[in-house]
Amino acid sequence: MRLLLVVNNLESGYGRLRVLRGVTLNVEEGEIVAVLGPNGAGKTTTLRALSGILPLWSGSITFLGRNLTKESPEARAAMGLGHVVEGRGILTSLSVEENLMLGRSLRRDGAQSIQRDKDHLLDLFPVLRERLKLPASSLSGGEQQMLALARSLLCRPKLLMIDEMSFGLAPIIVNQLFALVRQLRDEGTTSLIVEQQAGVLNICDRTFVLSGGRTVSQDDTGEAVSRADLVRSYLGDSEE
Ligand SMILES: Nc1ncnc2c1ncn2[C@@H]1O[C@H](COP(=O)(O)OP(=O)(O)OP(=O)(O)O)[C@@H](O)[C@H]1O
Ligand SMILES: [Mg+2]
């Protein structure tokens, strides 16, 4: 398997506030990697540093063999780094379809193949097809999350980074979304998924745990760290 993303000793923060103090992780092509950790661990900040929203203070990011450190967020996105942000980033005054088609801006291929992908995504998320012309504000939280995923997928990312897709959603919806990420993996989409819900352990191939802005544990083989221990330590007993 080819390494898609290699992140070494990332340091970054906000203004003068240092938040990341050594985040190290990697993602191989074709897998789902989960990043776990308590509130405030630096998970969202890590994704922001990876997508270039936040400047890197030190460390390195290599994506598809290229050093990303000096690349703009737009260049990273154009290279295939997708980011479903915390809180979904849906523009509620636009329609479902307009939100979805925002993903088109990164495509350099023709209208036909974009239309094919759009159709495929609407097959994957039938509820979006039903609401296509309605304002995005009329969608439930879970449906908005589906829209955010679909919009990112329309860019055909080589790596899809998803920040707490479970936030505020009922467990049954969360499990549906997890199953979908698994299905996407089987269709070839690689994902780096930040989560607090234990259900992610059922779909991910490997895990990294952040705490205090550092990588404190990694499960490189899928077995090195007991999954039950992970749940107890980082996700709360109630999720077991
Ligand atoms: N925009 C910001 N400005 C200043 N500090 C911030 C900002 N966003 C986050 N922080 C701080 O950075 C630290 C890490 O936050 P981050 O959002 O990365 O954590 P997280 O692991 O994603 O947590 P959660 O599970 O609650 O989403 C926290 O101490 C937080 O207060
Ligand atoms: Mg977060």
What is the overall pLDDT average? Answer: 89
Query: Under the CATH scheme, which architecture would be assigned?
Result: 3-Layer(aba) Sandwich
Please report the number of helical segments: 9
Helical percent range? Answer: 25-40%
In quaternary terms, these chains amount to single chain
Let me know the CATH homologous superfamily.
P-loop containing nucleotide triphosphate hydrolases
Give me the Rg, rounded. 17 Å
Kindly identify the CATH topology. Rossmann fold
What is the rounded distance between the termini?
31 Å
- Unreliably modeled segments: none
The total number of structural domains is: 1
Helix-strand pattern: EEEHEEHEHHHHEHEHEEH
Structure characterization notes:
The protein is α/β, with parallel strands linked by helices and 240 residues long. The protein is built from nine helices and ten strands. The protein has a six-stranded mixed beta sheet with strand order 6-7-8-3-9-10, sandwiched between helices. Strands 2-1-4-5 form a four-stranded antiparallel beta sheet, covered by helices on one side. The radius of gyration is 17 Å and the shape is globular. The mean pLDDT is 89. The chain has a single domain, classed as Rossmann fold. The two termini are 31 Å apart. The protein binds adenosine-5'-triphosphate and magnesium ion. Adenosine-5'-triphosphate binds next to strand 2 and helix 1.
Question: Could you outline the blueprint of secondary structure elements for this entry?
Answer:
Layout: E1 3-14, E2 17-28, E3 32-36, H1 43-51, E4 58-63, E5 66-67, H2 73-79, E6 81-84, H3 96-102, H4 111-124, H5 126-130, H6 141-153, E7 159-163, H7 171-186, E8 190-194, H8 200-203, E9 206-211, E10 214-219, H9 227-235
Parallel strand pairs: 3-8, 3-9, 6-7, 7-8
Antiparallel strand pairs: 1-2, 1-4, 4-5, 9-10
The structure holds adenosine-5'-triphosphate and magnesium ion (MG).
